[in-house]
Amino acid sequence: MNIRAMDKDFVLFRCVHWGPLSPSNIETAPANIPGLLEGQFERNRRFLTRVIDAYGSCGMLAMDREFVVGHVRFYPQAICDQHRFCCQDPNNAIKQEMVEMNLPKIENPAKRILRIDCILVHEDYRGRGLSHALLDGVLEWAREHNWTAVRAWASPDNYWLASQICAPMLRTYLKHGFEKAETAPSSEIRDLIRDLLTKIRDGEMGAEKKKEFQQFCGGQDLSEIATYYEVERQL
Ligand SMILES: CC(C)(COP(=O)(O)OP(=O)(O)OC[C@H]1O[C@@H](n2cnc3c(N)ncnc32)[C@H](O)[C@@H]1OP(=O)(O)O)[C@@H](O)C(=O)NCCC(=O)NCCS
């Protein structure tokens, strides 16, 4: 397994939910994303290519031969402050205005903050330490490219919860020198997570997930377990 920064040779314009992706199948793999807008992957590709041109990369990839089996997406905090977006979520899609947006030169060291936006390891590759290897890769890349801090949000210390949303557990980040920041995730994010967990609890995401919810989180206060943490690592 090899960890490397994403470059323009292979722009990962969709995520590995469906399966490992390589140049040979990324265009043709089934999408199966309800509500995906026409041309979305092309908009993603153009936006990500511009971000790579401007900053050098915006992803760390875990490779099994030529296949991406896990990835972290990261962007300057300054972009995340302006837009909330996700490559595969039709409710937070990358829009044409983002493809055309002015990508700021960030020269002030105090503002050279990267945000880990999501992390995903394909289910066949979970539990083998890839999230740790990907985080190491991001921190090394960030240091080499003169970023002064990396931020992220982290789930409570429950692997099942972490596996429902693209965010490692708090304790995983703490092992990499992140600290809990003073700011908590916005109530908007907490609400999103609580809504997702409510759907899982009530069986809207399938009987299997409902059963797992009962096993791992049954009887716990949803508002409490939906409290995610903002974490920051100074470089
Ligand atoms: C969260 C996620 C990134 C973790 O990736 P991973 O490569 O499996 O994690 P690792 O193997 O590096 O393990 C990380 C931690 O989880 C623990 N862990 C791994 N598998 C576990 C399991 N089955 N049960 C309990 N803990 C487990 C490890 O012990 C490790 O703990 P540590 O941080 O204290 O060392 C992965 O589960 C994932 O991609 N989740 C997203 C799923 C998804 O598709 N969400 C949809 C919404 S977009």
A few lines on this structure:
This protein is α+β, with helices and mostly antiparallel strands and 235 residues long.
Distance between the termini: 26 Å
Percent helix, as a range, is 25-40%
**Poorly predicted segments:** none
Strand composition percent:
15-25%
- What is the H-and-E element order? EHEEHHEHEHHEHHHE
Structural class: alpha+beta
Give the neighbour order of strands across the main sheet.
Answer: 1-2-3-4-5-7-6
Describe the structure in your own words.
The chain has 235 residues and is of the alpha+beta class. It has a domain at 2-147: Aminopeptidase. It is built from nine helices and seven strands. The protein has helices spanning 40-55, 77-82, 96-99, 130-144, 159-162, 170-175, 187-201, 207-217, 222-225, and strands at 2-5, 59-64, 67-76, 113-121, 149-154, 179-180, 229-234. A seven-stranded mixed beta sheet has the order 1-2-3-4-5-7-6. The longest helix is centred in the N-terminal third of the chain and has 16 residues, at 40-55. It is globular. The mean pLDDT is 93. Bound molecules: coenzyme A. Residues 17, 119-121, 126-132, 159, 162-166, 168-169, 171-172, 175 line the site of coenzyme A. Coenzyme A binds next to strand 4, helix 4, helix 5 and helix 6.
